[in-house]
Specification:
Layout: E1 7-10, E2 19-25, H1 29-36, E3 37-39, E4 54-60, E5 65-75, E6 86-92, H2 95-107, E7 111-112, H3 117-124, H4 130-141, H5 145-155, H6 158-183, H7 190-212, H8 214-222, E8 224-230, H9 236-244, E9 262-268, E10 271-277, H10 287-302, E11 305-311, H11 318-326, E12 332-337, H12 347-353, E13 358-361, H13 370-382, H14 397-418, H15 423-441, H16 447-455
Parallel strand pairs: 1-7, 8-10, 8-11, 11-12, 12-13
Antiparallel strand pairs: 1-2, 2-6, 3-4, 4-5, 5-6, 9-10
Helix pairs in contact: 4-5, 6-7, 6-15, 7-14, 14-15
The structure holds guanosine-5'-triphosphate and magnesium ion (MG).
Length: about 450
Amino acid sequence: MYIDGTIAAIATAAGEAGIGIVRISGEEAIAIVDKIFQSKQGKRLSEFNARRITYGHIIDPDKDEKIDEVLVHYTKGPYTYTTEDVVEINCHGGFIPVKKILELVLRKGARMAEPGEFTKRAFLNGRIDLAQAEAVMDLISAKTDKGFDVALEQLEGSLSKRVRNIQKKLLDMLAHIEVSIDFAEEDIDEITLEYLLNKSIEIEEDITVLRDTADAGKILREGLNTVIVGKPNVGKSSLLNALLKESRAIVTDIPGTTRDVIEEHLNIRGIPINIIDTAGIRETEDIVEKIGVERSKEFFNKADLIIFMVDRSAELTKEDIEIMKLIQNKKAIIIINKIDLPQRADTEKIDELMKDKKVIRVSLTEEQGLMEIEDAIEELVYKGTVRAKDSLLVTNIRHKSAVERALKSIKDSVVAIKKKMPLDFVEVDVKDAWEALGEVTGDTVAEDIIDHIFQNFCIGK
Ligand SMILES: Nc1nc2c(ncn2[C@@H]2O[C@H](COP(=O)(O)OP(=O)(O)OP(=O)(O)O)[C@@H](O)[C@H]2O)c(=O)[nH]1
Ligand SMILES: [Mg+2]
Protein backbone atom coordinates (compact mmCIF):
# COMPACT_ATOMS: atom_id res chain seq x y z
CA MET A 1 0.00 0.00 0.00
CA TYR A 2 1.45 3.32 -0.90
CA ILE A 3 0.61 6.90 -0.13
CA ASP A 4 0.23 9.37 -2.93
CA GLY A 5 -0.36 13.07 -3.13
CA THR A 6 -1.47 15.77 -0.79
CA ILE A 7 -5.02 15.32 0.40
CA ALA A 8 -7.65 17.78 1.53
CA ALA A 9 -11.13 17.62 3.02
CA ILE A 10 -13.61 19.53 5.10
CA ALA A 11 -13.09 18.29 8.66
CA THR A 12 -16.15 19.84 10.28
CA ALA A 13 -19.75 18.75 9.96
CA ALA A 14 -21.82 20.19 7.14
CA GLY A 15 -24.22 22.97 8.04
CA GLU A 16 -24.32 26.33 9.72
CA ALA A 17 -21.78 26.65 12.52
CA GLY A 18 -19.35 29.02 14.19
CA ILE A 19 -16.34 27.80 12.27
CA GLY A 20 -15.52 25.34 9.54
CA ILE A 21 -12.15 23.66 9.04
CA VAL A 22 -10.46 22.57 5.83
CA ARG A 23 -7.67 20.13 6.55
CA ILE A 24 -4.75 19.44 4.21
CA SER A 25 -2.07 16.79 4.64
CA GLY A 26 0.97 15.84 2.58
CA GLU A 27 4.25 17.06 1.16
CA GLU A 28 2.66 19.92 -0.74
CA ALA A 29 0.33 21.09 2.01
CA ILE A 30 2.26 24.20 2.99
CA ALA A 31 3.20 25.12 -0.59
CA ILE A 32 -0.42 24.89 -1.69
CA VAL A 33 -1.65 27.15 1.08
CA ASP A 34 1.15 29.60 0.32
CA LYS A 35 -0.51 30.15 -3.06
CA ILE A 36 -3.86 31.14 -1.57
CA PHE A 37 -3.20 32.64 1.85
CA GLN A 38 -2.19 36.16 2.72
CA SER A 39 -1.60 37.39 6.26
CA LYS A 40 -2.61 40.85 7.39
CA GLN A 41 0.89 42.12 6.57
CA GLY A 42 0.80 40.40 3.18
CA LYS A 43 3.03 37.46 4.19
CA ARG A 44 2.74 33.84 3.15
CA LEU A 45 2.07 31.01 5.60
CA SER A 46 5.58 29.53 5.37
CA GLU A 47 7.05 32.80 6.57
CA PHE A 48 5.50 32.13 9.98
CA ASN A 49 6.58 29.52 12.50
CA ALA A 50 4.92 26.14 12.62
CA ARG A 51 2.25 25.63 15.32
CA ARG A 52 1.45 29.33 15.31
CA ILE A 53 -2.02 30.53 14.49
CA THR A 54 -1.94 33.18 11.81
CA TYR A 55 -4.68 35.59 10.89
CA GLY A 56 -5.33 36.53 7.28
CA HIS A 57 -7.40 35.90 4.17
CA ILE A 58 -7.84 33.18 1.62
CA ILE A 59 -7.54 34.75 -1.79
CA ASP A 60 -8.20 33.20 -5.16
CA PRO A 61 -4.99 34.25 -6.96
CA ASP A 62 -6.42 33.64 -10.42
CA LYS A 63 -9.26 36.10 -9.93
CA ASP A 64 -7.58 38.19 -7.25
CA GLU A 65 -10.71 37.69 -5.17
CA LYS A 66 -11.08 37.45 -1.36
CA ILE A 67 -12.78 34.22 -0.37
CA ASP A 68 -12.92 34.41 3.44
CA GLU A 69 -11.32 35.74 6.58
CA VAL A 70 -9.43 32.89 8.24
CA LEU A 71 -7.08 31.62 10.93
CA VAL A 72 -4.49 29.20 9.62
CA HIS A 73 -1.83 27.06 11.20
CA TYR A 74 0.51 24.34 10.09
CA THR A 75 2.43 21.58 11.79
CA LYS A 76 5.45 19.86 10.34
CA GLY A 77 5.61 16.10 10.12
CA PRO A 78 6.30 13.74 11.76
CA TYR A 79 4.62 15.19 14.85
CA THR A 80 1.16 15.45 13.32
CA TYR A 81 -1.99 13.35 13.08
CA THR A 82 -0.92 11.82 9.78
CA THR A 83 2.86 12.22 10.43
CA GLU A 84 2.95 14.42 7.31
CA ASP A 85 2.88 18.21 7.07
CA VAL A 86 -0.63 19.31 8.00
CA VAL A 87 -2.35 22.65 7.45
CA GLU A 88 -5.69 23.55 8.92
CA ILE A 89 -7.67 26.50 7.65
CA ASN A 90 -10.29 27.76 10.11
CA CYS A 91 -12.88 29.74 8.21
CA HIS A 92 -16.47 30.78 8.84
CA GLY A 93 -18.88 27.89 9.30
CA GLY A 94 -21.66 27.21 6.85
CA PHE A 95 -21.78 25.52 3.48
CA ILE A 96 -20.23 28.17 1.25
CA PRO A 97 -16.90 29.23 2.86
CA VAL A 98 -15.59 25.69 3.42
CA LYS A 99 -16.73 24.57 0.00
CA LYS A 100 -15.09 27.51 -1.76
CA ILE A 101 -11.82 27.07 0.12
CA LEU A 102 -11.75 23.33 -0.49
CA GLU A 103 -12.34 23.86 -4.21
CA LEU A 104 -9.47 26.34 -4.34
CA VAL A 105 -7.14 23.99 -2.45
CA LEU A 106 -7.99 21.19 -4.87
CA ARG A 107 -7.43 23.48 -7.86
CA LYS A 108 -3.98 24.35 -6.49
CA GLY A 109 -2.79 20.76 -6.40
CA ALA A 110 -4.36 18.79 -3.56
CA ARG A 111 -6.54 15.75 -4.09
CA MET A 112 -9.88 15.16 -2.39
CA ALA A 113 -9.31 12.85 0.60
CA GLU A 114 -11.14 9.54 0.69
CA PRO A 115 -13.20 8.69 3.77
CA GLY A 116 -10.88 8.16 6.73
CA GLU A 117 -7.78 8.82 4.63
CA PHE A 118 -6.11 11.06 7.23
CA THR A 119 -6.42 8.29 9.80
CA LYS A 120 -5.39 5.71 7.22
CA ARG A 121 -2.19 7.66 6.65
CA ALA A 122 -1.56 7.72 10.39
CA PHE A 123 -1.85 3.94 10.26
CA LEU A 124 0.19 3.39 7.10
CA ASN A 125 2.89 5.72 8.40
CA GLY A 126 3.06 3.65 11.57
CA ARG A 127 1.88 6.21 14.10
CA ILE A 128 -1.07 4.11 15.21
CA ASP A 129 -2.10 0.51 14.64
CA LEU A 130 -5.33 -0.69 13.11
CA ALA A 131 -7.18 -1.17 16.40
CA GLN A 132 -6.30 2.39 17.36
CA ALA A 133 -7.47 3.70 13.98
CA GLU A 134 -10.78 1.93 14.44
CA ALA A 135 -11.06 3.44 17.91
CA VAL A 136 -11.00 6.90 16.32
CA MET A 137 -14.19 6.03 14.49
CA ASP A 138 -15.73 4.58 17.65
CA LEU A 139 -14.96 7.78 19.54
CA ILE A 140 -16.79 9.82 16.95
CA SER A 141 -19.81 7.55 16.91
CA ALA A 142 -19.98 6.75 20.65
CA LYS A 143 -23.52 6.98 21.99
CA THR A 144 -22.84 7.00 25.72
CA ASP A 145 -20.06 8.17 28.05
CA LYS A 146 -19.12 4.58 28.73
CA GLY A 147 -18.84 3.79 25.02
CA PHE A 148 -16.65 6.84 24.64
CA ASP A 149 -14.35 5.79 27.53
CA VAL A 150 -13.89 2.35 26.02
CA ALA A 151 -12.98 3.82 22.63
CA LEU A 152 -10.55 6.27 24.21
CA GLU A 153 -8.81 3.47 26.08
CA GLN A 154 -8.48 1.58 22.82
CA LEU A 155 -7.18 4.64 21.03
CA GLU A 156 -4.47 4.90 23.65
CA GLY A 157 -3.40 1.43 22.69
CA SER A 158 -4.47 -0.69 25.66
CA LEU A 159 -6.14 -3.33 23.51
CA SER A 160 -3.20 -3.48 21.14
CA LYS A 161 -0.82 -3.82 24.07
CA ARG A 162 -2.79 -6.70 25.52
CA VAL A 163 -2.92 -8.42 22.15
CA ARG A 164 0.82 -7.92 21.55
CA ASN A 165 1.62 -9.42 24.95
CA ILE A 166 -0.25 -12.55 23.99
CA GLN A 167 1.41 -12.58 20.59
CA LYS A 168 4.78 -12.42 22.28
CA LYS A 169 4.00 -15.49 24.34
CA LEU A 170 2.98 -17.27 21.15
CA LEU A 171 6.30 -16.32 19.55
CA ASP A 172 8.17 -17.72 22.56
CA MET A 173 6.30 -20.96 22.05
CA LEU A 174 7.11 -20.99 18.35
CA ALA A 175 10.81 -20.44 19.03
CA HIS A 176 10.79 -23.32 21.49
CA ILE A 177 9.01 -25.59 19.02
CA GLU A 178 11.41 -24.74 16.22
CA VAL A 179 14.45 -25.55 18.32
CA SER A 180 12.91 -28.83 19.38
CA ILE A 181 12.03 -29.80 15.81
CA ASP A 182 15.55 -29.00 14.62
CA PHE A 183 17.38 -30.84 17.35
CA ALA A 184 15.16 -33.71 18.42
CA GLU A 185 16.55 -36.89 17.01
CA GLU A 186 14.12 -39.17 18.69
CA ASP A 187 10.94 -38.43 20.70
CA ILE A 188 10.32 -35.03 22.15
CA ASP A 189 11.29 -34.94 25.78
CA GLU A 190 8.79 -34.58 28.59
CA ILE A 191 10.18 -31.25 29.74
CA THR A 192 9.50 -29.67 26.37
CA LEU A 193 6.00 -31.09 26.27
CA GLU A 194 5.23 -29.87 29.74
CA TYR A 195 6.55 -26.41 28.94
CA LEU A 196 4.48 -26.19 25.76
CA LEU A 197 1.37 -27.46 27.47
CA ASN A 198 1.61 -24.96 30.33
CA LYS A 199 2.34 -22.15 27.97
CA SER A 200 -0.56 -22.92 25.65
CA ILE A 201 -2.99 -23.27 28.56
CA GLU A 202 -1.83 -19.91 29.88
CA ILE A 203 -2.35 -18.32 26.48
CA GLU A 204 -5.75 -19.95 26.16
CA GLU A 205 -6.74 -18.27 29.41
CA ASP A 206 -5.45 -14.90 28.25
CA ILE A 207 -7.40 -15.08 25.02
CA THR A 208 -10.52 -16.30 26.80
CA VAL A 209 -10.51 -13.25 29.07
CA LEU A 210 -10.28 -11.05 26.01
CA ARG A 211 -13.04 -12.93 24.22
CA ASP A 212 -15.34 -12.68 27.24
CA THR A 213 -15.23 -8.89 27.12
CA ALA A 214 -16.55 -8.91 23.58
CA ASP A 215 -20.23 -9.35 24.41
CA ALA A 216 -20.22 -6.37 26.73
CA GLY A 217 -18.24 -4.48 24.11
CA LYS A 218 -20.75 -5.15 21.38
CA ILE A 219 -23.59 -4.02 23.62
CA LEU A 220 -21.83 -0.76 24.42
CA ARG A 221 -21.44 -0.08 20.74
CA GLU A 222 -24.77 -1.17 19.42
CA GLY A 223 -27.04 -1.20 22.43
CA LEU A 224 -28.67 -4.06 24.30
CA ASN A 225 -31.68 -5.27 22.35
CA THR A 226 -34.27 -5.76 25.03
CA VAL A 227 -37.87 -6.83 24.76
CA ILE A 228 -40.58 -6.69 27.40
CA VAL A 229 -43.03 -9.57 27.14
CA GLY A 230 -45.90 -10.86 29.22
CA LYS A 231 -49.64 -11.27 29.21
CA PRO A 232 -51.91 -8.26 28.61
CA ASN A 233 -52.32 -5.79 31.45
CA VAL A 234 -49.40 -6.98 33.61
CA GLY A 235 -47.68 -3.57 33.38
CA LYS A 236 -45.27 -3.82 30.45
CA SER A 237 -45.95 -0.33 29.16
CA SER A 238 -45.73 0.99 32.71
CA LEU A 239 -42.23 -0.47 32.92
CA LEU A 240 -41.20 1.13 29.63
CA ASN A 241 -42.43 4.48 30.90
CA ALA A 242 -40.68 4.03 34.24
CA LEU A 243 -37.34 3.21 32.63
CA LEU A 244 -37.70 6.12 30.22
CA LYS A 245 -38.89 8.38 33.04
CA GLU A 246 -41.64 9.70 30.79
CA SER A 247 -45.11 8.68 29.61
CA ARG A 248 -44.24 7.24 26.26
CA ALA A 249 -46.64 4.32 26.00
CA ILE A 250 -50.33 4.42 26.78
CA VAL A 251 -51.16 2.69 30.03
CA THR A 252 -54.75 1.68 30.85
CA ASP A 253 -56.45 -1.02 32.84
CA ILE A 254 -57.90 -2.49 29.63
CA PRO A 255 -56.01 -5.62 28.60
CA GLY A 256 -54.69 -5.30 25.06
CA THR A 257 -53.93 -1.57 25.28
CA THR A 258 -50.63 -1.84 23.43
CA ARG A 259 -51.55 -3.04 19.96
CA ASP A 260 -48.26 -2.75 18.15
CA VAL A 261 -44.65 -2.77 19.22
CA ILE A 262 -43.13 0.42 20.61
CA GLU A 263 -39.38 0.85 20.29
CA GLU A 264 -37.38 3.30 22.38
CA HIS A 265 -33.75 4.03 23.20
CA LEU A 266 -32.50 4.71 26.67
CA ASN A 267 -29.37 4.58 28.72
CA ILE A 268 -29.03 2.66 31.96
CA ARG A 269 -25.76 3.41 33.78
CA GLY A 270 -23.97 4.08 30.53
CA ILE A 271 -25.36 1.02 28.77
CA PRO A 272 -27.34 1.96 25.66
CA ILE A 273 -30.59 0.00 25.55
CA ASN A 274 -32.89 -0.48 22.59
CA ILE A 275 -36.09 -1.48 24.29
CA ILE A 276 -39.29 -2.81 22.82
CA ASP A 277 -42.68 -2.88 24.50
CA THR A 278 -44.94 -5.46 22.94
CA ALA A 279 -48.58 -6.31 22.74
CA GLY A 280 -49.45 -8.76 25.50
CA ILE A 281 -49.01 -12.37 24.48
CA ARG A 282 -52.24 -14.38 24.46
CA GLU A 283 -54.28 -16.46 22.12
CA THR A 284 -56.47 -13.96 20.34
CA GLU A 285 -59.17 -13.68 17.70
CA ASP A 286 -58.62 -9.98 17.04
CA ILE A 287 -56.72 -9.60 13.76
CA VAL A 288 -54.87 -6.36 14.59
CA GLU A 289 -53.78 -7.64 17.95
CA LYS A 290 -52.88 -11.00 16.49
CA ILE A 291 -50.33 -9.38 14.18
CA GLY A 292 -48.90 -7.50 17.19
CA VAL A 293 -48.62 -10.74 19.14
CA GLU A 294 -46.90 -12.51 16.27
CA ARG A 295 -44.42 -9.67 16.02
CA SER A 296 -43.68 -9.75 19.71
CA LYS A 297 -42.82 -13.43 19.42
CA GLU A 298 -40.48 -12.51 16.58
CA PHE A 299 -38.69 -9.83 18.62
CA PHE A 300 -38.53 -12.28 21.44
CA ASN A 301 -36.32 -14.51 19.32
CA LYS A 302 -33.98 -11.71 18.25
CA ALA A 303 -33.53 -10.06 21.64
CA ASP A 304 -30.29 -10.00 23.65
CA LEU A 305 -32.38 -9.71 26.80
CA ILE A 306 -35.97 -10.65 27.55
CA ILE A 307 -37.79 -8.99 30.38
CA PHE A 308 -40.69 -11.27 31.25
CA MET A 309 -43.36 -9.76 33.43
CA VAL A 310 -46.15 -11.30 35.46
CA ASP A 311 -48.86 -9.71 37.57
CA ARG A 312 -48.67 -10.97 41.15
CA SER A 313 -52.27 -10.03 41.82
CA ALA A 314 -53.58 -12.43 39.18
CA GLU A 315 -53.28 -16.18 38.99
CA LEU A 316 -50.64 -17.68 36.72
CA THR A 317 -52.09 -19.05 33.51
CA LYS A 318 -50.87 -21.56 31.00
CA GLU A 319 -49.52 -18.69 28.86
CA ASP A 320 -47.23 -17.63 31.72
CA ILE A 321 -45.92 -21.15 32.13
CA GLU A 322 -45.54 -21.45 28.38
CA ILE A 323 -43.46 -18.28 28.13
CA MET A 324 -41.27 -19.31 31.07
CA LYS A 325 -40.50 -22.56 29.34
CA LEU A 326 -39.66 -20.71 26.14
CA ILE A 327 -37.17 -18.41 27.84
CA GLN A 328 -35.46 -21.00 29.97
CA ASN A 329 -32.38 -21.04 27.74
CA LYS A 330 -32.30 -17.34 27.01
CA LYS A 331 -30.93 -14.29 28.76
CA ALA A 332 -33.90 -13.15 30.75
CA ILE A 333 -35.00 -11.24 33.82
CA ILE A 334 -38.33 -12.04 35.45
CA ILE A 335 -40.33 -9.22 36.95
CA ILE A 336 -43.20 -9.88 39.31
CA ASN A 337 -45.22 -6.68 39.26
CA LYS A 338 -48.03 -5.21 41.37
CA ILE A 339 -46.72 -6.34 44.75
CA ASP A 340 -48.80 -3.52 46.27
CA LEU A 341 -51.90 -5.61 45.59
CA PRO A 342 -52.93 -8.83 47.37
CA GLN A 343 -51.10 -11.86 46.05
CA ARG A 344 -52.86 -14.41 43.90
CA ALA A 345 -50.09 -15.73 41.70
CA ASP A 346 -48.16 -18.79 42.77
CA THR A 347 -44.74 -17.12 42.90
CA GLU A 348 -43.05 -20.22 44.23
CA LYS A 349 -43.79 -21.84 40.92
CA ILE A 350 -42.00 -18.94 39.18
CA ASP A 351 -38.97 -19.20 41.47
CA GLU A 352 -38.86 -22.91 40.79
CA LEU A 353 -39.15 -22.64 37.00
CA MET A 354 -36.74 -19.73 36.76
CA LYS A 355 -34.29 -20.78 39.42
CA ASP A 356 -31.12 -19.77 37.56
CA LYS A 357 -32.57 -16.39 36.59
CA LYS A 358 -33.00 -13.12 38.38
CA VAL A 359 -36.57 -12.77 39.70
CA ILE A 360 -37.38 -9.24 40.86
CA ARG A 361 -40.48 -8.15 42.76
CA VAL A 362 -41.67 -4.64 41.99
CA SER A 363 -44.57 -2.26 42.11
CA LEU A 364 -44.46 0.16 39.25
CA THR A 365 -47.26 2.35 40.52
CA GLU A 366 -45.50 2.63 43.88
CA GLU A 367 -42.12 3.05 42.16
CA GLN A 368 -40.65 0.14 44.05
CA GLY A 369 -37.88 -2.07 42.68
CA LEU A 370 -36.70 -0.06 39.66
CA MET A 371 -33.16 0.14 41.04
CA GLU A 372 -33.02 -3.63 41.26
CA ILE A 373 -34.05 -3.91 37.63
CA GLU A 374 -31.23 -1.57 36.64
CA ASP A 375 -28.78 -3.52 38.81
CA ALA A 376 -29.84 -6.75 37.13
CA ILE A 377 -29.40 -5.34 33.63
CA GLU A 378 -25.97 -3.96 34.48
CA GLU A 379 -24.88 -7.26 35.99
CA LEU A 380 -26.09 -9.21 32.97
CA VAL A 381 -24.16 -7.01 30.57
CA TYR A 382 -20.91 -7.29 32.48
CA LYS A 383 -21.61 -10.85 33.67
CA GLY A 384 -19.05 -10.55 36.40
CA THR A 385 -16.27 -11.13 33.86
CA VAL A 386 -15.57 -7.46 33.45
CA ARG A 387 -16.14 -4.74 35.96
CA ALA A 388 -18.10 -1.67 35.01
CA LYS A 389 -14.99 0.44 35.49
CA ASP A 390 -12.76 -1.73 33.34
CA SER A 391 -12.59 0.09 30.07
CA LEU A 392 -10.66 -2.50 28.13
CA LEU A 393 -13.28 -4.26 26.09
CA VAL A 394 -13.26 -5.84 22.69
CA THR A 395 -15.93 -3.71 21.06
CA ASN A 396 -15.36 -4.39 17.42
CA ILE A 397 -16.94 -7.34 15.62
CA ARG A 398 -13.88 -7.74 13.42
CA HIS A 399 -11.68 -7.96 16.51
CA LYS A 400 -14.06 -10.38 18.16
CA SER A 401 -13.95 -12.73 15.21
CA ALA A 402 -10.14 -12.57 15.10
CA VAL A 403 -9.91 -13.26 18.84
CA GLU A 404 -12.31 -16.18 18.50
CA ARG A 405 -10.22 -17.71 15.73
CA ALA A 406 -7.10 -17.29 17.83
CA LEU A 407 -8.87 -19.01 20.71
CA LYS A 408 -9.88 -21.93 18.55
CA SER A 409 -6.34 -22.39 17.26
CA ILE A 410 -4.74 -22.29 20.68
CA LYS A 411 -7.33 -24.79 21.95
CA ASP A 412 -6.40 -27.06 19.05
CA SER A 413 -2.77 -26.79 20.05
CA VAL A 414 -3.57 -27.76 23.63
CA VAL A 415 -5.29 -30.88 22.35
CA ALA A 416 -2.42 -31.67 19.98
CA ILE A 417 0.14 -31.36 22.75
CA LYS A 418 -1.90 -33.52 25.10
CA LYS A 419 -2.17 -36.19 22.42
CA LYS A 420 1.61 -35.92 21.88
CA MET A 421 1.14 -35.25 18.21
CA PRO A 422 4.19 -34.27 16.14
CA LEU A 423 5.35 -30.75 16.93
CA ASP A 424 4.77 -29.64 13.33
CA PHE A 425 1.04 -29.88 14.02
CA VAL A 426 1.31 -27.83 17.15
CA GLU A 427 3.38 -25.30 15.29
CA VAL A 428 0.65 -24.77 12.69
CA ASP A 429 -1.96 -24.06 15.37
CA VAL A 430 0.27 -21.68 17.29
CA LYS A 431 1.11 -19.80 14.11
CA ASP A 432 -2.58 -19.54 13.22
CA ALA A 433 -3.35 -18.10 16.66
CA TRP A 434 -0.54 -15.57 16.25
CA GLU A 435 -1.79 -14.51 12.84
CA ALA A 436 -5.40 -14.19 13.92
CA LEU A 437 -4.37 -11.87 16.76
CA GLY A 438 -2.26 -9.85 14.34
CA GLU A 439 -5.44 -8.95 12.48
CA VAL A 440 -6.55 -6.92 15.48
CA THR A 441 -3.52 -4.66 15.37
CA GLY A 442 -3.30 -4.82 11.59
CA ASP A 443 0.09 -6.55 11.49
CA THR A 444 -1.21 -9.51 9.53
CA VAL A 445 -4.34 -8.15 7.93
CA ALA A 446 -4.98 -8.17 4.18
CA GLU A 447 -4.98 -4.98 2.14
CA ASP A 448 -8.61 -5.18 1.02
CA ILE A 449 -9.77 -5.47 4.61
CA ILE A 450 -7.83 -2.35 5.50
CA ASP A 451 -9.44 -0.48 2.60
CA HIS A 452 -12.83 -1.70 3.69
CA ILE A 453 -12.34 -0.51 7.26
CA PHE A 454 -11.42 3.01 6.24
CA GLN A 455 -14.27 3.27 3.74
CA ASN A 456 -16.64 3.33 6.71
CA PHE A 457 -14.99 6.41 8.18
CA CYS A 458 -16.26 9.90 7.62
CA ILE A 459 -14.60 12.24 5.16
CA GLY A 460 -12.10 14.57 6.78
CA LYS A 461 -11.11 12.17 9.58
N1 LIG B 1 -51.74 -1.70 41.45
C1 LIG B 1 -50.84 -1.67 40.49
N2 LIG B 1 -51.23 -1.43 39.22
C2 LIG B 1 -50.31 -1.38 38.25
C3 LIG B 1 -48.94 -1.57 38.53
N3 LIG B 1 -48.25 -1.48 37.36
C4 LIG B 1 -49.16 -1.22 36.40
N4 LIG B 1 -50.40 -1.17 36.93
C5 LIG B 1 -51.66 -0.93 36.23
O1 LIG B 1 -51.96 -2.03 35.40
C6 LIG B 1 -52.67 -1.60 34.24
C7 LIG B 1 -52.00 -2.13 32.98
O2 LIG B 1 -50.75 -1.50 32.81
P1 LIG B 1 -50.03 -1.42 31.42
O3 LIG B 1 -48.68 -0.87 31.66
O4 LIG B 1 -50.88 -0.76 30.39
O5 LIG B 1 -49.91 -2.97 31.07
P2 LIG B 1 -49.45 -3.67 29.74
O6 LIG B 1 -48.78 -4.93 30.13
O7 LIG B 1 -48.68 -2.73 28.89
O8 LIG B 1 -50.84 -4.02 29.05
P3 LIG B 1 -51.17 -4.31 27.50
O9 LIG B 1 -50.58 -3.19 26.70
O10 LIG B 1 -52.64 -4.31 27.51
O11 LIG B 1 -50.58 -5.62 27.16
C8 LIG B 1 -52.74 -0.10 34.32
O12 LIG B 1 -53.98 0.29 34.84
C9 LIG B 1 -51.62 0.25 35.29
O13 LIG B 1 -51.83 1.47 35.96
C10 LIG B 1 -48.56 -1.83 39.90
O14 LIG B 1 -47.38 -2.01 40.25
N5 LIG B 1 -49.54 -1.87 40.82
MG1 LIG C 1 -48.99 -2.04 27.05
